[in-house]
Amino acid sequence: MPPEWVFKMSFQVINMSKFYTIFFSFCVLITGCVSPDDIRILDSRMLLLERQNSELQIENAKLKEKINDIEVNLKTVAGKGMMGVKTNYAELKANFEIVQDQISKLQGESEEIKYIFENRLTGMNRSVISNTGRLVRLEQFVGFEPSDKIDKVNKGNKSDTTSKSNTPLTKKSNNGQGLSEEQLYWSGKKAFDAGEYEKAREIFRKYLKLYPKSQNADNAQFWSGEIYYREKWYEKAILEYQKVIEKYANGNKVASALLKQGLAFDSLGEKGNSRLILKKLIKMYPKSNEAKIAKNKLKK
Q1: Domain locations in the chain?
Q2: Secondary structure in 3-state letters for the chain
Q3: CA–CA distance from 2 to each of 14, 78, 273 (Å)?
Q4: Which fold has domain 145-162+174-299?
Q5: What's the pLDDT score for residue 138?
Q6: What backbone torsions phi and psi does residue 188 show, to the nearest 5 degrees?
């Protein structure tokens, strides 16, 4: 709508025109006579007022048109502004929903991974228990000392020590650890089975130094080679196994040492030496369990 002052100005001009007309008419009525000059002046003023009134009406129409244009523009701008705000809000809301979906998916995947991990961990525990049993049976098969024998020996030694606590020892311990010969050996075997290879290596080294001709000396020498084998230091393992073969030729670990020597050469990629050692094993100990393993290896 046009401003109020535009209408007021138009009404004022019209009112002034009417006022002058009425005023001069009143003067004519009072005086009863008007000169021609007065009439011309009155006509001139009337024309001027009418012209001014027309100009004001034109100006008023222009102002009204401008105001209408401004209102249209304001509505357009306001509409676009609101549309932009609505669009931005819609985009933000959509992005927020996408992020929520991604978080939900991640939570679901996390729970699934946790479930799988727990199941696999349970399976691994079962596998470890199963493999432990298989390891004991394999050790028995190839003539190694079963791992479960260690605790029995230690318990037996403790009970023997308790029962003989009041009896003088015929053979004193000289290993610096207060352990008997057998206890020292089995402490090394226990460390080996627990994967404490460095500790086991030191115990077997000390044992062989103190008791080089004992009943378990060939076993201690064999386990020393086995430590290097499990550490994948095959060259050193071959040398340790060779000591078993040379120093303890009449012991019960020669066949096992030959077998592991052949497997060590095979791991080094020396297939020729490996086959020679395995054939030697089969020839020397044809009825041994180690010979059966060697035959299967040569077939591959």
Answers
A1: 4-82, 145-162+174-299
A2: CCCHHHHHHHHHHHHHHHHHHHHHHHHHHHHCCCCHHHHHHHHHHHHHHHHHHHHHHHHHHHHHHHHHHHHHHHHHHHHHHHHHHHHHHHHHHHHHHHHHHHHHHHHHHHHHHHHHHHHHHHHHHHHHHHHHHHHHHHHHHHCCCCCCHHHHHHHHHHHHHHHCCCCCCCCCCCCCCCCCHHHHHHHHHHHHHCCCHHHHHHHHHHHHHHCCCCCCHHHHHHHHHHHHHHCCCHHHHHHHHHHHHHHCCCCCCHHHHHHHHHHHHHHCCCHHHHHHHHHHHHHHCCCCHHHHHHHHHHHC
A3: 18, 20, 112
A4: 1.25.40
A5: 57
A6: -65, -40
78-136 per-position pLDDT tens digit: 666 666 666 777 877 787 778 777 786 776 676 667 666 565 655 655 554 455 455 55
Taking residue 271's Cβ as centre, other Cβ atoms within 10 Å add up to 10
Tell which residue, 161, 113, 141, has the closest CA to residue 255: 141
pTM for the whole structure: 0.48
**CA 53 distance to own-chain centroid:** 85
> Which tokens in the block code for residue 69?
């244009």
**Any residues with CB less than 8 A from the CB of 13 and at least 6 apart, and which?**
49, 52, 53, 56
So what's the pLDDT on residue 118?
A: 60
Alpha carbon of residue 167 to chain centroid: 63
User: What's the pLDDT at 213?
Assistant: 94
Can you tell me the distance from the alpha carbon of 226 to that of 12, in angstroms, rounded to the nearest whole number? 122
